[in-house]
Amino acid sequence: MGFRIKSTAHAVPQQVLTNDDLAQRMETSDEWIRTRTGIRQRHIATTETTTSLAVATAQQLLQRSGIAATELDFIIVCTMSPDQLTPSTAALVQGAIGANKAFAFDLNAACSGFIYSLSVAAQFFTEGTPYRYGLVIGSECLSRLLDWQDRTTAVLFGDGAGGVLLEHQSQGLLGQHLAADGSQAAALKAGEVVASTEIVNWVNYKLDPFKMDGRAVYRFATHAVPDSLQQAVASSPYALADIDHFLLHQANTRIIAQVAKRLGQPLTKFPQNMAAYGNTSAASLPILLDECVQSQQVQRGDVLALSGFGGGLTVGSQILIY
Ligand SMILES: O=C(O)C1CCN(c2ccc(-c3cc(CO)ccc3Cl)cn2)CC1
């Protein structure tokens, strides 16, 4: 069971909002945001959408791999901020690029979505299945879910998309661990439909904005992520020391430092780009991976450990050779 990553790509909105720009709009400062999160700026959608960013990413993946859209067998888009409930973003991407052979669906595991999607994709690449190529794209426009009066969350997130084109191969996904803790579901939620005793006409629906108990999510991450990575490594042929790069969900630089410390691994093995993008939820890992590939920080043959964590609460890790 497994795949190789044939190409990587990402797409972000044009507009950039710096910490200083935010300090003009709410009671915050560049100093607070930068020192507590590592974030310096974020890209915010104006004319772009979750769908358009996913389509741009898909087009770049095809162009970089030399694979035609008609060769794709499936498209998975992981998002917690689709432009609509149905059709799925993946189906819209399938139509936009003309991948007429591909089946398509969305997956929502919040910030663990890319990891969960790679695990699902790997199940399609097992002995005897006819599938050869698939897209996994994380795409988010979180800026449309945020309460821009809530400085504890509005400063953390950004918009963007990233993805991979996968090719079936017998090896590839060498170890994985997926988990959830639904007992803490209320710690991170967005778009909740307010319940009502009588039938509420859809036109009157109001969705709740993004809400997070930062302390609870932070506490979950500091123990669940090291644990998940250790379990994924234990299920692989490698030891922690054999991992060349740890690519973690870009939520917070302090969490990454704590995970590195708990794993006893040097911080130099943990590339970070939240400074430029903020937290882009399911898009953060593929954006980071593409930047590492484009800068040649990640080379063919490198052993990677990827980990996503967040809403659900969920966590997931994978060990693979790039
Ligand atoms: O006061 C401080 O220092 C605050 C303390 C709270 N902070 C947090 C807390 C949680 C997250 C977070 C969010 C998601 C959602 O994608 C997933 C995973 C995580 Cl760990 C990000 N920042 C910011 C700095």
Write a structural description.
The chain is an alpha/beta fold and 322 residues long. The chain folds into two domains: 3-172, 3-Layer(aba) Sandwich (Peroxisomal Thiolase, Chain A, domain 1); 175-181 and 212-321, 3-Layer(aba) Sandwich (Peroxisomal Thiolase, Chain A, domain 1). Helix content is 32%, strand content 24%. The chain has ten helices and 13 strands. The strands form four sheets. Strands 1-7-6-4-5 form a five-stranded mixed beta sheet, sandwiched between helices. Strand 12 and strand 13 (314-321) form a beta hairpin. The model has no long low-confidence stretch (mean pLDDT 96).
Task: Summarize this structure briefly.
This protein is α/β, with parallel strands linked by helices.
What is the total tally of β strands?
13
Compute the CA-based radius of gyration.
19 Å
Poorly predicted regions: none
| Amino-to-carboxy terminus distance | 16 Å
Overall CATH architecture of the largest domain: 3-Layer(aba) Sandwich
In terms of DSSP E residues, the strand content is 15-25%
Major beta-sheet overview: 5 strands, mixed
Average of the residue pLDDT scores? 96
**What fold name stands as the CATH topology of the largest domain?**
Peroxisomal Thiolase, Chain A, domain 1
- Order of strands, widest sheet: 1-7-6-4-5
What's the helical proportion of residues? 25-40%
**What would you give as the CATH superfamily of the largest domain?**
Thiolase/Chalcone synthase
Number of domains: 2
User: What hetero molecules are bound to the protein chains?
Assistant: the ligand O=C(O)C1CCN(c2ccc(-c3cc(CO)ccc3Cl)cn2)CC1
Shape: globular
The number of helical elements comes to: 10
What top-tier CATH class of the largest domain fits best? Alpha Beta
